[in-house]
Design goal:
The protein is an alpha/beta fold. The protein is 47% helix and 15% strand. It folds into two domains: 208 residues, Alpha-Beta Complex (Spore Coat Polysaccharide Biosynthesis Protein SpsA, Chain A); 85 residues, no CATH class. The chain has an eight-stranded mixed sheet with strand order 3-2-1-4-7-6-8-5. Strand 1, helix 1 and strand 2 form a beta-alpha-beta unit. The protein starts with 5 loop residues before the first strand and ends in an 18-residue tail after the last helix. The model has no long low-confidence stretch (mean pLDDT 93).
Protein backbone atom coordinates (compact mmCIF):
# COMPACT_ATOMS: atom_id res chain seq x y z
CA UNK A 1 0.00 0.00 0.00
CA UNK A 2 1.31 3.46 -0.88
CA UNK A 3 2.21 5.86 1.89
CA UNK A 4 -0.07 8.91 2.18
CA UNK A 5 1.49 12.20 1.08
CA UNK A 6 1.20 15.18 3.37
CA UNK A 7 1.92 18.80 4.23
CA UNK A 8 2.43 20.33 7.68
CA UNK A 9 1.10 23.78 8.63
CA UNK A 10 2.78 25.61 11.52
CA UNK A 11 1.16 28.80 12.80
CA UNK A 12 3.48 31.53 14.01
CA UNK A 13 1.01 33.77 15.83
CA UNK A 14 2.58 32.81 19.12
CA UNK A 15 6.17 33.15 17.94
CA UNK A 16 6.25 36.76 19.06
CA UNK A 17 5.82 35.65 22.68
CA UNK A 18 7.80 32.41 22.81
CA UNK A 19 11.55 32.26 23.18
CA UNK A 20 13.27 31.18 19.96
CA UNK A 21 15.19 28.59 21.97
CA UNK A 22 11.83 27.01 22.81
CA UNK A 23 10.56 27.28 19.25
CA UNK A 24 13.82 25.69 18.15
CA UNK A 25 13.10 22.61 20.28
CA UNK A 26 9.78 22.15 18.52
CA UNK A 27 11.25 22.63 15.06
CA UNK A 28 14.12 20.20 15.75
CA UNK A 29 11.59 17.63 16.97
CA UNK A 30 9.51 18.15 13.85
CA UNK A 31 12.58 17.69 11.61
CA UNK A 32 13.38 14.46 13.46
CA UNK A 33 9.83 13.18 12.90
CA UNK A 34 9.88 14.01 9.18
CA UNK A 35 13.25 12.32 8.74
CA UNK A 36 11.97 9.22 10.54
CA UNK A 37 8.97 8.71 8.23
CA UNK A 38 10.95 9.69 5.14
CA UNK A 39 13.34 6.86 5.95
CA UNK A 40 10.33 4.52 5.74
CA UNK A 41 9.47 5.71 2.23
CA UNK A 42 7.15 8.67 2.79
CA UNK A 43 7.56 11.50 0.28
CA UNK A 44 9.32 14.71 1.30
CA UNK A 45 6.60 17.07 2.56
CA UNK A 46 5.91 20.75 2.43
CA UNK A 47 6.21 22.58 5.76
CA UNK A 48 4.20 25.78 5.58
CA UNK A 49 5.05 28.50 8.10
CA UNK A 50 1.88 30.59 8.26
CA UNK A 51 2.68 33.83 10.07
CA UNK A 52 0.87 37.03 11.01
CA UNK A 53 3.51 39.36 9.55
CA UNK A 54 4.09 40.67 6.06
CA UNK A 55 5.85 39.00 3.13
CA UNK A 56 8.98 40.91 4.10
CA UNK A 57 9.13 39.01 7.42
CA UNK A 58 9.75 35.70 5.64
CA UNK A 59 13.51 36.25 5.41
CA UNK A 60 13.72 37.02 9.14
CA UNK A 61 11.75 33.90 10.03
CA UNK A 62 13.82 31.84 7.63
CA UNK A 63 17.09 33.00 9.21
CA UNK A 64 15.81 32.25 12.72
CA UNK A 65 14.63 28.79 11.72
CA UNK A 66 17.86 28.04 9.89
CA UNK A 67 19.82 29.04 12.98
CA UNK A 68 17.67 27.06 15.41
CA UNK A 69 16.77 23.97 13.34
CA UNK A 70 18.77 23.68 10.10
CA UNK A 71 17.62 20.05 9.88
CA UNK A 72 14.08 21.14 9.03
CA UNK A 73 15.09 22.74 5.74
CA UNK A 74 16.92 19.55 4.81
CA UNK A 75 13.98 17.28 5.66
CA UNK A 76 11.19 19.30 4.03
CA UNK A 77 10.39 21.99 1.51
CA UNK A 78 9.91 25.19 3.53
CA UNK A 79 7.24 27.69 2.47
CA UNK A 80 6.45 30.98 4.24
CA UNK A 81 2.87 32.25 3.95
CA UNK A 82 2.08 35.74 5.25
CA UNK A 83 -1.34 36.62 6.64
CA UNK A 84 -0.85 40.14 8.03
CA UNK A 85 -2.56 40.53 11.37
CA UNK A 86 -4.08 37.07 11.08
CA UNK A 87 -5.65 35.48 14.13
CA UNK A 88 -5.00 31.88 15.16
CA UNK A 89 -7.48 30.05 12.93
CA UNK A 90 -6.98 32.47 10.06
CA UNK A 91 -3.33 31.40 10.03
CA UNK A 92 -4.40 27.77 9.89
CA UNK A 93 -6.67 28.41 6.91
CA UNK A 94 -3.97 30.52 5.26
CA UNK A 95 -1.58 27.57 5.36
CA UNK A 96 -4.08 25.11 3.89
CA UNK A 97 -4.29 26.99 0.60
CA UNK A 98 -0.64 26.13 -0.12
CA UNK A 99 -0.79 22.54 1.11
CA UNK A 100 -0.38 19.50 -1.13
CA UNK A 101 -0.80 15.78 -0.66
CA UNK A 102 -3.44 13.54 0.90
CA UNK A 103 -3.30 15.00 4.39
CA UNK A 104 -2.73 18.35 6.11
CA UNK A 105 -1.26 18.20 9.60
CA UNK A 106 -1.52 21.18 11.95
CA UNK A 107 0.91 22.02 14.72
CA UNK A 108 1.91 25.23 16.49
CA UNK A 109 5.09 27.18 17.08
CA UNK A 110 4.85 26.48 20.82
CA UNK A 111 4.35 22.71 20.77
CA UNK A 112 7.01 19.99 20.82
CA UNK A 113 6.27 16.57 19.34
CA UNK A 114 7.34 13.30 20.93
CA UNK A 115 9.07 10.48 19.10
CA UNK A 116 6.70 8.57 16.82
CA UNK A 117 4.22 11.45 16.59
CA UNK A 118 4.23 11.87 12.81
CA UNK A 119 3.98 8.18 12.01
CA UNK A 120 0.99 7.89 14.34
CA UNK A 121 -0.70 10.87 12.67
CA UNK A 122 -0.16 9.58 9.13
CA UNK A 123 -0.94 5.88 9.47
CA UNK A 124 -4.77 6.21 9.64
CA UNK A 125 -4.79 8.03 6.28
CA UNK A 126 -3.96 4.74 4.59
CA UNK A 127 -7.70 4.14 5.00
CA UNK A 128 -9.47 6.24 2.38
CA UNK A 129 -12.40 6.73 4.77
CA UNK A 130 -10.27 8.63 7.29
CA UNK A 131 -11.01 12.36 7.32
CA UNK A 132 -9.67 13.54 10.71
CA UNK A 133 -6.89 12.25 12.96
CA UNK A 134 -6.57 13.76 16.44
CA UNK A 135 -3.35 13.69 18.46
CA UNK A 136 -2.75 13.97 22.21
CA UNK A 137 -1.53 17.37 23.41
CA UNK A 138 -0.64 17.94 27.07
CA UNK A 139 0.75 20.87 29.02
CA UNK A 140 4.41 20.73 30.00
CA UNK A 141 5.13 21.76 33.59
CA UNK A 142 8.13 22.67 35.69
CA UNK A 143 6.80 24.57 38.75
CA UNK A 144 3.72 25.03 40.94
CA UNK A 145 1.72 27.24 38.58
CA UNK A 146 2.41 25.19 35.45
CA UNK A 147 1.54 21.97 37.31
CA UNK A 148 -1.74 23.56 38.34
CA UNK A 149 -2.50 24.57 34.76
CA UNK A 150 -1.72 21.04 33.56
CA UNK A 151 -4.19 19.68 36.11
CA UNK A 152 -7.08 22.04 35.33
CA UNK A 153 -6.55 22.64 31.59
CA UNK A 154 -8.68 21.26 28.77
CA UNK A 155 -5.80 19.02 27.64
CA UNK A 156 -5.45 15.55 29.17
CA UNK A 157 -2.44 14.91 31.38
CA UNK A 158 0.57 13.34 29.69
CA UNK A 159 0.14 10.03 31.48
CA UNK A 160 -2.44 8.29 33.64
CA UNK A 161 -5.42 10.23 32.25
CA UNK A 162 -6.90 7.53 30.04
CA UNK A 163 -10.57 8.39 30.55
CA UNK A 164 -10.17 12.06 29.65
CA UNK A 165 -7.75 11.31 26.80
CA UNK A 166 -10.19 8.86 25.21
CA UNK A 167 -12.86 11.56 24.78
CA UNK A 168 -10.59 14.54 24.11
CA UNK A 169 -11.77 17.21 21.71
CA UNK A 170 -9.78 18.14 18.62
CA UNK A 171 -7.07 20.76 19.11
CA UNK A 172 -5.72 22.69 16.15
CA UNK A 173 -2.17 22.32 17.49
CA UNK A 174 -2.17 18.54 16.99
CA UNK A 175 -4.68 17.42 14.38
CA UNK A 176 -4.72 16.30 10.75
CA UNK A 177 -7.38 16.32 8.05
CA UNK A 178 -7.73 14.88 4.60
CA UNK A 179 -6.70 17.82 2.44
CA UNK A 180 -9.75 17.78 0.18
CA UNK A 181 -12.04 17.99 3.21
CA UNK A 182 -10.27 20.75 5.14
CA UNK A 183 -9.83 22.76 1.94
CA UNK A 184 -13.60 22.87 1.53
CA UNK A 185 -14.33 23.11 5.29
CA UNK A 186 -12.00 25.77 6.70
CA UNK A 187 -11.94 26.60 10.39
CA UNK A 188 -15.06 28.77 10.83
CA UNK A 189 -14.66 32.50 11.24
CA UNK A 190 -15.70 33.47 14.77
CA UNK A 191 -15.19 36.20 17.38
CA UNK A 192 -14.11 33.64 19.98
CA UNK A 193 -10.52 32.90 20.93
CA UNK A 194 -10.66 29.09 20.76
CA UNK A 195 -14.14 28.30 19.46
CA UNK A 196 -13.56 27.28 15.85
CA UNK A 197 -12.09 23.88 16.82
CA UNK A 198 -15.36 22.97 18.51
CA UNK A 199 -17.47 24.19 15.60
CA UNK A 200 -15.37 22.23 13.10
CA UNK A 201 -15.58 19.10 15.26
CA UNK A 202 -19.37 19.32 15.28
CA UNK A 203 -19.36 19.77 11.51
CA UNK A 204 -17.39 16.53 11.20
CA UNK A 205 -19.94 14.75 13.36
CA UNK A 206 -22.90 16.19 11.44
CA UNK A 207 -21.43 14.79 8.22
CA UNK A 208 -20.98 11.39 9.84
CA UNK A 209 -17.18 11.39 9.95
CA UNK A 210 -15.36 9.54 12.70
CA UNK A 211 -12.53 11.35 14.49
CA UNK A 212 -9.63 8.92 14.87
CA UNK A 213 -7.84 9.51 18.19
CA UNK A 214 -4.23 8.33 18.10
CA UNK A 215 -1.38 8.26 20.61
CA UNK A 216 0.53 11.02 18.80
CA UNK A 217 1.86 13.06 21.70
CA UNK A 218 3.04 16.64 21.78
CA UNK A 219 3.51 19.01 24.68
CA UNK A 220 2.46 22.64 24.77
CA UNK A 221 4.36 25.24 26.74
CA UNK A 222 2.39 26.36 29.82
CA UNK A 223 0.74 29.76 30.30
CA UNK A 224 2.75 32.22 32.37
CA UNK A 225 1.90 35.26 34.45
CA UNK A 226 -1.00 36.51 36.58
CA UNK A 227 -2.32 38.91 33.93
CA UNK A 228 -2.55 36.15 31.37
CA UNK A 229 -4.12 33.84 33.98
CA UNK A 230 -6.94 36.35 34.51
CA UNK A 231 -7.43 37.10 30.82
CA UNK A 232 -7.41 33.44 29.81
CA UNK A 233 -9.96 32.58 32.48
CA UNK A 234 -12.34 35.35 31.40
CA UNK A 235 -12.02 34.47 27.72
CA UNK A 236 -12.58 30.78 28.55
CA UNK A 237 -15.91 31.76 30.04
CA UNK A 238 -16.86 34.00 27.13
CA UNK A 239 -15.94 31.24 24.68
CA UNK A 240 -18.14 28.80 26.62
CA UNK A 241 -21.11 31.11 26.07
CA UNK A 242 -20.24 31.51 22.38
CA UNK A 243 -20.12 27.73 21.92
CA UNK A 244 -23.49 27.37 23.66
CA UNK A 245 -25.04 29.99 21.38
CA UNK A 246 -23.52 28.47 18.22
CA UNK A 247 -24.53 24.91 19.02
CA UNK A 248 -27.87 25.45 20.75
CA UNK A 249 -29.01 28.97 19.72
CA UNK A 250 -30.68 29.52 23.13
CA UNK A 251 -32.31 32.61 24.54
CA UNK A 252 -30.59 34.79 27.12
CA UNK A 253 -32.24 33.07 30.11
CA UNK A 254 -30.86 29.69 29.04
CA UNK A 255 -27.42 31.20 28.50
CA UNK A 256 -27.41 32.69 32.00
CA UNK A 257 -28.57 29.39 33.49
CA UNK A 258 -25.79 27.62 31.59
CA UNK A 259 -23.17 29.95 33.08
CA UNK A 260 -24.16 28.84 36.59
CA UNK A 261 -24.39 25.13 35.75
CA UNK A 262 -21.01 25.22 34.01
CA UNK A 263 -19.45 26.96 37.02
CA UNK A 264 -20.61 24.09 39.20
CA UNK A 265 -19.50 21.45 36.70
CA UNK A 266 -16.03 22.93 36.22
CA UNK A 267 -15.54 23.51 39.95
CA UNK A 268 -16.31 19.85 40.63
CA UNK A 269 -14.12 18.71 37.72
CA UNK A 270 -11.24 20.87 38.96
CA UNK A 271 -11.53 19.51 42.50
CA UNK A 272 -11.61 15.92 41.27
CA UNK A 273 -8.68 16.30 38.86
CA UNK A 274 -6.38 18.19 41.22
CA UNK A 275 -6.88 15.66 44.00
CA UNK A 276 -6.60 12.65 41.69
CA UNK A 277 -3.67 13.71 39.49
CA UNK A 278 -1.53 16.05 41.61
CA UNK A 279 0.71 13.24 42.94
CA UNK A 280 1.57 11.95 39.44
CA UNK A 281 2.39 15.53 38.40
CA UNK A 282 5.04 15.61 41.11
CA UNK A 283 3.16 18.14 43.25
CA UNK A 284 4.04 17.95 46.97
CA UNK A 285 1.08 17.13 49.21
CA UNK A 286 1.20 20.49 50.96
CA UNK A 287 0.77 22.34 47.63
CA UNK A 288 -2.45 20.54 46.67
CA UNK A 289 -4.83 22.86 48.64
CA UNK A 290 -3.19 25.92 47.05
CA UNK A 291 -3.41 24.35 43.60
CA UNK A 292 -7.07 23.58 44.17
CA UNK A 293 -7.72 27.16 45.29
CA UNK A 294 -5.99 28.50 42.18
CA UNK A 295 -7.96 26.17 39.92
CA UNK A 296 -11.25 27.18 41.51
CA UNK A 297 -10.28 30.85 41.15
CA UNK A 298 -9.64 30.27 37.44
CA UNK A 299 -13.10 28.83 36.84
CA UNK A 300 -14.75 31.46 39.03
CA UNK A 301 -13.24 34.09 36.75
CA UNK A 302 -14.40 31.97 33.80
CA UNK A 303 -17.91 32.07 35.27
CA UNK A 304 -17.75 35.87 35.47
CA UNK A 305 -16.71 36.02 31.81
CA UNK A 306 -19.46 33.56 30.85
CA UNK A 307 -22.16 35.32 32.86
CA UNK A 308 -21.09 38.76 31.67
CA UNK A 309 -21.46 37.86 27.99
CA UNK A 310 -24.61 35.76 28.53
CA UNK A 311 -26.32 38.56 30.45
CA UNK A 312 -25.30 41.23 27.94
CA UNK A 313 -23.09 43.06 30.44
CA UNK A 314 -20.16 42.86 28.01
CA UNK A 315 -20.26 42.97 24.22
CA UNK A 316 -19.31 40.07 21.99
CA UNK A 317 -16.10 41.45 20.48
CA UNK A 318 -13.29 39.76 18.57
CA UNK A 319 -10.84 38.11 20.97
CA UNK A 320 -7.18 38.74 20.26
CA UNK A 321 -4.10 37.47 22.02
CA UNK A 322 -2.86 40.19 24.40
CA UNK A 323 0.66 41.55 24.00
CA UNK A 324 1.58 40.57 27.57
CA UNK A 325 0.88 36.88 27.04
CA UNK A 326 3.55 34.32 27.88
CA UNK A 327 2.10 31.20 26.26
CA UNK A 328 -1.42 30.41 25.14
Amino acid sequence: MEHPTYSIVIEMENARSVDWDEIGLGLKALAREIAAVSAKGFARPKVIISHAGSDADASILQSHIKAEAPQLGEAAEMIFAACPGGRYYELKNNGVRLAEGNAVIFTDSDTVTEQGWLAAMLTPFRDNETVCVNGHTYLWYDDFSSRTFALIWFFPMARGDTRFAAKRAINANNVAFRRDWISSHPFPKHNGFKVSCTLLMHQLWREGHKIVNVDARAYHYPPRGLRFFCWRALVTGRDADRKFVALHAPNRARRIAKSFSRWGTMSWRTTRRVIAHAPQAGMPFWQIPFSLALGLAFYTLAFLGHFGLAAGIVRDQIETLPDYTGHS
